[in-house]
Amino acid sequence: MTLVKICGINDAAGFDAVAEAGADMVGLVFYPPSPRAVTAAEAAALSARVQGGPMRVGLFVDPTDAELEAVLAALPLGMIQLHGAESPARCAAIRARFGLPVMKAVGVGDPRDLEGLAFYTPTVDRFLLDAKPPPDSDLPGGNATAFDWSLTAGRTIPRPWLLAGGLTPETVAEAIRQSGAPGVDVSSGVERSRGVKDPARIAAFVAAVRGAEA
Ligand SMILES: O=C(O)c1ccccc1N[C@@H]1O[C@H](COP(=O)(O)O)[C@@H](O)[C@H]1O
Q1: ipTM
Q2: CA 121 to chain centre
């Protein structure tokens, strides 16, 4: 079954929609410059709405240990997503210190970016392959930008991985078909405006992924 992660949830309606749609993972953004950012306390309150449900994935950009500790003191996470310029050694250190699986986001623009995954393979549990940010963006992700899905077709990615970047309910089935992705991640494509999730689009996205499997 294709894994589905809905990222950047910052309100109750969005959190409930992710759980009701049966997504596998929910992403909580702990990066203050993002329009989707939540505080540790806000994330804990959202997470407490649902017992069980999707894995809570904390998204961080070049976090300090203190930042990670503050979030993990407020709520349990199932995975740490690192979406900055973290080195393989830093990924290994975070994984060892916090005892959680690490998903490293890597920007993909050409085949050499996929060859570079080998440097991270021993130190991470999962990859998230995203587009590189556009030059005028102030965010390392969440830019509604796709990369060439055919780049991953037929390639062996050395860890389980999620496809991200510019996916929408309308495009995700074709993206899975072209890329061969075993999982997908979306933020902008399920919003009604920047940083504001649309419950109907969250449901449509998960339904489109499940429909692509049928
Ligand atoms: O969503 C954000 O605001 C964000 C901020 C900083 C780093 C990563 C961020 N989002 C991640 O980017 C992917 C792709 O986003 P989109 O669907 O193209 O908008 C998203 O799923 C998050 O994992």
Answers
A1: 0.98
A2: 18
- pLDDT, tens digit, 9 for 90 and up, residues 22-45: 999 999 999 999 999 999 999 999
Q: Which residues contact 3 (CB under 8 A, 6 or more apart)?
A: 24, 25, 162, 182, 183, 184
Instruction: Please give the domain boundaries of the chain with CATH numbers for all domains.
Output: 3-213 (3.20.20.70)
Residue 184 Cβ contacting ligand 1 at under 6 Å? no
173, 209 Cβ separation under 8 angstroms = yes
* The model scores a pTM over 0.95: yes
Cβ of residue 56 lying under 6 Å from some atom of ligand 1: no
- Please give the positions annotated as active site: 7, 130
Torsion of Cα atoms, 120 then 160 then 211 then 5, to 10°? -60
Q: Which residue has the tokens 């830093």?
A: 90
